[in-house]
Specification:
The structure is a single chain. This protein is of the alpha/beta class. The chain is built from 39 helices and 15 strands. Among the domains are: 100 residues; 71 residues, no CATH class; 66 residues; 144 residues; 160 residues, 3-Layer(aba) Sandwich (Rossmann fold), CATH 3.40.50. Helices cover 61% and strands 8% of the residues. It has a 5-stranded mixed β-sheet with strand order 3-2-1-4-7, with helices on both faces. α36 links the parallel β8 and β9. The N terminus is likely disordered.
C-alpha cells in the first residue's frame, strides 16, 4: 500500500469539511473531484461496515459533487456521474426504492451522452448503464428494459477494442441479456448468440481473474436454457460443470454465492427431471436450503429463493412420498407469498408454486379446502402475471389441472369447461418445439379425453388423440415427459381401435428407453424411471400381435422393454470370454470400466469426496459407452450386450420350451420358443377383466382369520388359470400326461403384463376326474426374461470350479431376528443340508451374522443357503432382502438388500437357496415388469422357498438337495 495515499485518505475522511472550505468557492473542478473522491471512500467504508448511514452519506456527497461539476469538462463530469450512478444502484439494492434505480439510470444515460467521443470511457459507462437497466428489468420485467439492455451491451462490445481487458465483461453481460430475452420471446437466435458470446467471454478471461466465476455462471445458465430448448443433454452436463466450477471459486462470504448456489440447484433439478437421478435432486434441495439460510430475511430476492426451494421440495416429495417434505414445501411457499410485495416481479411464480403444492396436498389429504385454495391461489398468480410473461402458459395449464380435479370431486361442469379453455390457451401461447409444450399438450389431451368419457362426444376423443400425437413430436421435451406422452397417445388410439398407429407409436416409445434408463442411475433411481413406463412393453407385444406382426417381433419388443434394470445388471456381469479371444485389450478395458461404475462410494479412499466419486463414475460410464461402440464394430459383435437374437432365443430353448404369457387389456397370448421356432398362441378364454379382478384380490396375503376363504378363492383362481391358459398351451405343445416325475419335460415360464405374478406351475382343476394339474405334464421354472436365462447359463459355464476342487457353500442361519419371530427350525435345516452334502462341499456356517460379514464371505462361495426371514418392500423393491442383524452390543434388525448385493460383483456364485418368507414376492405394482427381489444376486440359479411351518423346512431342503 502507498502509505502517503493511505494517510491522505484518512485525512480526507476525517477533515472533509475543512478541506472543502480551504478550496476557493469558484474552483469547482477541485471541489467536485474532492467531493467525488470522498463519496467513493465512504462508499468503500460502507461495503466493509454495512452501516446504512455510510451509504446515505456517500449518496449525499456524490450528489453534491455532481452539482459542482455540471459546467466542467465532460470527462470529469462523466466520471462523477458514473460514481453517483453506482452508489444509487447500491442503495436501491439495499433499500428497494425504485426511485434510486431510476435516478441511477438517468445519470448514466447522461454520462453516455457526454462521453461519445471517448471510446474507452463510453465503453465503461455503457457497461454500467446496462447493469442498471438489467436491475430495473429484474424488478419490473418490462420487455423494453430488456431490449435496451441488449442494445446497450452491443454498443459496449462494439466500443471496446479487441484486446481491451473490459471486453470479456461486456461479452458476458451481452450473453446474460440475450438469454433473458430468449426466455421472454423465445427467439432461438438469441439463445445461440448468448451461448456463443458467453463462451467467448470465458475463453478471454484469465484463469485467476476475479470475474471468471461470474462469467462461468453466465455461460452455465445459457447452457441450461439451451438444453431445455433443444434437448441436448451434453449442454446440461457442461452447464453443471460450469456452474459448479463458478461456485467452487466463490468465497463463502461472497455476495453472489447465494445466486450461484441457486443457479446450480436449478441445473441439478433439471438434470433430475431428465434422468431421474435422485442424488441431483437431493443436492439441489440442500443447496436451495443453504441459499435461504444465507440470504437476509429482508432481501428482495428472498421470495425467489423461497419459491425455488418450494419447487425443489415438491419434486422431492413426488419422488419419495414423504409428507413431511410436502409440508415443508408448503410452509416455505406460504412464507414467500407473505413477504412478497404486490409489485414483486416473482409474485406470479411464487403463487403458482404455492398453488401446485396445495394441489399435491389435496391428493394426499383429499380435503376439499386444500383444492379450493389451490384454485384460488392459482387464479391470483394468473392475475399477477403480465400477458406476455413466459410463466403465463404454465400458470394456465396448472389452473386447468386444478379445475379438472375439482370437477372430478364435486362435478361442476363449469369447472371442466374452464379447465379445457385455459389448457387450450396455454398450448396456443407456446412456441412449436418448446420443451414445456409437451406437458401442456398432455394436460389438454387428458381434459378432452375425460370430457369424452363423460359426454360421449366423439369430437373430444378425436381432438384428444390429435393433441397427444402432437405432444410426442416435441423432441425438445425431456425423454421422461415424451414417454408419458407416448403412453397417453397409445391408450387413446387403442380406445379408438386404431391399433396400427398405436403399434407404430409403441415401437418409437421403446426406442426412447435407452435415453431415460442408463447406468448413470442408482437402482432406486432406475426404479423411479421404470415406473413411468410400466406395462408399455406388454402393450407393445399385444399390439404387434393384434396387427399381424410375427411373434418374434412381438417378443423382441417385450425383451427390450421389460426387465430393463435387470438387463443392465446382467450386461455388467456377463461372460466376456469370446471378446477376450478376439481382442484382449478391448476386453480388459471393458471389464475394468464396468467394475469401476459398480464400485461402491464407501470403498473409495478418504480423499475421494462424493462429488469427485460421482464425476469419476460418470466419466467411467461415458467411457464404457464408447467402449461398447468400439466392440460392436468388431466382426461378429454387432449385437454385443443388446437383446438376444431369434437364433439365440431358439438355442436357449434346447433344454425345454420357453413360454411367455402376456396379458393386457387388449388381448392375452402365449409366445412359445422352441428349438424349431417361435410361435404365438392366442388365449381368448384368459379374460383380461377377470385377470385384473384376480390380481386385485391379493390372494397371497393370508391371515389366520381369512385363510379358509382365501384358500377357496385361490383354488378357483388356479382352476381359471388352468382352463383359460395353461391347458390350452400344453395341448398346443402335445405334452403327454406323465406318471413318473423323472419323465417330465422342462419348461421355463415368463409372465408379463397382468400375468407377471401368475403361478403357472400350480395351475390345476381340482374338480376334474382325474385331477388335472401342470405338475402331471411338465416341470416348471421361472425366468424374468429370455435374456436372463441365457445369462444364467453363461454364468454356469464360467463359474463351475475345476474338476476335483470341492465347491464352497455358505449357510446363514437366523434363529432369532430382532423385531421378528423366532425360527426354531433353521439350525435343524442347516444340519440336514450338511448331512446330505457330506464331504462333497466345503461348508461354512454363519449363525446370527451381520450384513457386512455375509457380504465378505459370499464372494468366496459357490452356493449360498439362507435360512432366515425375508422382507419385500412394495415402495422400493431394491430394499427387499433378507433379515439379518447389526454387529452391535445390542443387535438391531438389518436387511441384506438387493441394492447392497448389486453393489458387489459375485463372480464365483452359482446357486442361492433362499429358505425365507417373501423371497419370491414383488409387491410393487408399478414395477411388475422388473425382477427386483432376491434373485438379482448375480447367481445363475435361485431357489426361493416360502414356508409357513418351521418343521417342514429341513425335510424340504433334504428333498431338494
Amino acid at each position: 500500500m502507498d502509505f502517503d495515499l493511505h494517510f491522505l485518505e484518512i485525512d480526507l475522511l476525517n477533515n472533509f469539511e475543512e478541506l472543502i472550505a480551504s478550496i476557493a468557492v469558484d474552483d469547482n473542478e477541485h471541489r467536485a473531484v474532492l467531493g467525488c473522491y470522498y463519496a467513493e471512500l465512504v462508499f468503500e467504508q460502507f461495503k466493509l461496515s454495512d452501516r446504512i448511514q455510510d451509504l446515505e452519506e456517500a449518496v449525499e456527497k456524490a450528489k453534491w459533487a455532481e452539482l459542482q461539476a455540471k459546467n466542467l469538462e465532460h470527462s470529469v463530469y462523466a466520471r462523477i456521474l458514473g460514481v453517483l450512478g453506482n452508489i444509487l444502484e447500491r442503495r436501491f439494492q439495499c433499500m428497494g426504492q425504485i426511485e434510486d434505480l431510476e435516478e441511477a439510470i438517468q445519470v448514466l444515460r447522461h454520462a453516455v451522452e457526454i462521453s461519445s467521443d471517448n471510446h474507452l470511457c463510453l465503453s465503461y459507462f455503457l457497461h454500467s448503464l446496462g447493469n442498471k437497466l438489467g436491475a430495473r428489468y429484474n424488478h419490473t420485467e418490462k420487455i423494453e428494459d430488456l431490449e435496451e439492455v441488449v442494445q446497450v451491451s452491443r454498443q459496449m462490445v462494439k466500443a471496446t477494442p479487441n484486446a481491451h481487458p473490459s471486453l470479456p465483461g461486456g461479452l458476458s453481460y451481452l450473453g446474460h441479456g440475450l438469454r433473458l430475452r430468449y426466455e421472454r420471446i423465445g427467439m432461438m437466435d438469441d439463445l445461440e448468440e448468448a451461448v456463443q458470446v458467453s463462451r467467448q467471454a470465458v475463453n478471454l478471461t484469465p484463469d485467476n481473474h476475479a470475474d471468471l466465476p461470474s462469467r462461468l455462471h453466465t455461460l452455465g445458465q445459457a447452457l441450461v436454457m439451451r438444453c431445455d430448448s433443444i434437448g441436448k443433454m451434453e449442454n446440461l452436463e457442461e452447464a453443471i460443470r460450469m456452474l459448479r466450477q463458478a461456485l467452487d471459486m466463490t468465497a463463502i462470504d461472497h455476495p453472489e454465492r447465494v445466486n450461484r448456489l441457486n443457479g446450480l440447484a436449478i441445473g441439478l433439478t433439471k438434470r433430475h427431471h431428465r434422468t431421474g437421478n435422485m442424488e441431483d435432486l437431493k443436492e439441489a434441495v440442500q443447496m436451495s436450503l443453504e441459499t435461504v439460510v444465507q440470504m437476509p430475511n429482508d432481501h428482495r430476492n428472498m421470495t425467489l429463493l423461497l419459491a425455488s426451494l418450494g419447487t425443489h421440495l415438491s419434486k422431492l416429495y413426488r419422488c419419495i412420498g414423504l409428507v413431511e417434505v410436502l409440508e415443508m414445501g408448503i410452509e416455505v411457499s406460504r412464507r414467500a407469498v407473505e413477504i412478497a410485495t404486490d409489485d414483486d416481479c416473482y409474485l406470479p411464480l411464487i403463487l403458482r408454486s404455492l398453488g401446485n403444492r396445495l394441489g399435491d396436498q389435496y391428493k394426499h389429504t383429499q380435503k376439499i379446502e386444500d383444492l379450493e385454495e389451490a384454485v384460488k391461489v392459482s387464479r391470483q398468480g394468473l392475475k399477477a402475471t403480465p400477458n406476455a410473461h413466459p410463466n403465463l402458459p404454465g400458470g394456465l395449464s396448472d389452473l386447468g389441472n386444478h379445475l379438472r380435479t375439482r370437477y372430478e370431486r364435486i362435478g361442476m361442469m363449469d369447472d371442466f369447461e374452464e379447465a379445457i379453455q385455459v389448457s387450450r390457451h396455454a398450448v396456443n401461447l407456446m412456441p412449436n418445439n418448446h420443451p414445456d409444450l409437451a406437458s401442456y399438450l398432455q394436460n389438454l389431451s387428458e381434459n378432452l379425453n375425460r370430457r369424452y368419457k363423460d359426454t360421449g362426444e366423439i369430437q373430444d376423443l378425436e381432438e384428444a388423440i390429435r393433441v397427444s400425437l402432437q405432444a410426442v413430436t416435441v423432441t425438445a421435451a425431456p425423454p421422461l415427459v415424451r414417454i408419458l406422452g407416448f403412453v397417453q397417445a397409445i391408450e387413446l388410439l387403442q380406445s379408438q381401435g386404431n391399433y396400427g398407429n398405436a403399434y407404430t407409436l409403441s415401437e418409437e416409445a421403446i426406442d426412447l428407453l435407452p435415453l431415460v434408463h442408463n447406468r448413470s442411475l442408482s437402482i432406486q433411481d432406475q426404479q423411479y424411471v421404470v415406473s413411468f413406463f410400466f406395462g408399455m412393453a406388454a402393450d407393445a407385444c399385444s399390439l404387434a400381435l393384434q396387427v399381424g406382426q410375427a411373434p418374434i417381433k412381438a417378443l423382441e419388443l417385450l425383451e427390450r422393454g421389460r426387465g430393463v434394470i435387470l438387463s443392465l445388471l446382467m450386461d455388467d456381469r456377463s461372460d466376456t470370454s469370446e471378446l477376450r479371444a478376439v481382442n484382449p485389450t478391448l476386453c480388459e478395458q471393458y471389464e475394468n470400466l464396468r467394475l469401476e461404475i459398480h464400485r461402491p462410494f464407501e470403498t473409495a479412499i478418504s480423499s475421494d469426496t462424493p462429488k469427485f466419486m460421482s464425476e469419476r463414475r460418470q466419466k467411467a460410464i461415458n467411457d464404457l459407452e464408447e467402449c461398447l461402440r468400439a466392440i460392436r464394430q468388431l466382426q461378429g459383435f454387432s449385437s454385443f450386450q443388446k437383446g438376444p437374437t431369434a437364433e439365440q432365443m431358439k438355442k436357449a430353448s434346447d433344454k425345454g420350451n420357453i413360454i411367455i404369457v402376456n396379458v393386457t387389456v387388449l388381448r392375452s397370448d402365449a409366445i412359445i420358443i422352441s428349438s424349431s421356432g417361435i410361435k404365438s398362441v392366442h388365449l381368448p378364454h384368459l379374460d383380461t377383466l377377470q385377470a385384473q379382478e384376480w390380481v386385485n384380490q391379493d390372494l397371497t396375503s393370508v391371515s389366520q382369520s381369512n385363510r379358509g376363504p382365501k384358500n377357496k378363492a385361490y383354488r378357483q383362481f388356479l382352476s381359471w388359470l388352468w382352463r383359460g391358459c395353461v391347458k390350452t398351451i400344453l395341448t398346443e405343445l402335445n405334452y403327454p400326461f406323465q406318471h413318473a416325475a423323472e419323465n417330465l419335460s422342462r419348461v421355463w415360464w415368463v409372465g408379463t403384463g397382468l400375468a407377471s405374478t401368475f403361478p403357472f406351475h400350480a395351475a390345476c382343476d381340482l374338480s376334474a376326474d382325474p385331477i388335472e394339474s401342470v405338475s402331471s405334464y411338465i416341470l416348471s421354472s421361472y425366468i424374468p426374461s429370455v435374456k436372463a436365462l441365457i445369462h444364467a447359463r453363461e454364468r454356469v459355464l464360467t463359474t463351475v470350479p475345476p474338476s476335483g476342487k470341492p465347491q464352497k457353500m455358505l449357510i446363514v442361519t437366523m434363529a432369532e431376528t430382532p423385531g421378528a419371530g423366532n425360527l426354531s427350525g433353521v439350525k435343524a435345516e442347516a444340519s440336514a443340508v450338511v448331512g446330505v452334502l457330506g464331504s462333497s462341499v466345503d461348508v461354512e456356517i454363519l449363525d446370527q451374522p451381520d450384513t457386512k460379514s455375509v457380504l465378505r464371505h459370499i464372494h468366496q462361495c459357490d452356493i449360498a443357503h439362507f435360512a432366515c426371514h425375508g422382507v419385500s418392500d412394495s415402495n422400493d423393491p431394491s430394499k427387499s432382502g433378507l433379515l439379518l442383524q447389526t454387529a452391535t452390543e445390542k443387535p438391531s434388525q438389518d436387511v441384506l438388500s438387493v441394492s447392497k448385493i448389486c453393489e458387489n460383483h459375485l463372480a464365483q456364485g452359482q446357486i442361492a437357496y433362499l429358505s425365507a418368507c417373501s423371497t419370491a414376492e414383488n409387491r410393487a405394482e408399478h414395477l411388475m415388469d422388473e425382477v427386483l427381489h432376491v434373485d438379482v444376486y448375480g447367481l445363475p440359479t435361485t431357489i426361493s422357498v416360502l414356508t409357513l411351518r418351521n418343521r417342514s423346512i429341513p425335510n424340504f431342503a433334504e428333498t431338494v438337495l
